[in-house]
Amino acid sequence: MELRGTVLVLRPLIVVAMREEAEQLGAAGGRRCGLDGIHDVGTVFEHDVDDEGLFALTGAHFSAAIVLGEGPALATGDRFVAGGAFRVALALRAELVELEGYAVVVAGSCAAAGVPVRIVKLVSDDAGKNASTTWADSVATHARALAAWAEQHLG
Prior knowledge:
5 helices
């Protein structure tokens, strides 16, 4: 983890997972055909945790969906989604998918502390079989687009 700049109460904290995204800002894969551009996330959940199984064992939910407002659902986790049956299953639950898993941690921590949180993602690829190539080819362009959005909406 690396902190760049100073954290201030009146200044938004922007979190990204990879150095390439931090050059400007972060991105996400689109799970629905035709979904592109920049989106305010409405709901976020962790896609690679068996929440129901954990609930059956412990009686507590560890990765229940967190509702932030209106907008597409974001599935987040440690597994890179690049096509196949897993991609198809995620499409039934979320429009966006990301690898880093920060979204759930940030949203959950903010909710617990009463701090407003906003998750904004730019669709960088279709989370299909060419996702890694598409992401690598477009990360700089997409990061610049998100930086421009942040300047306009947060600056």
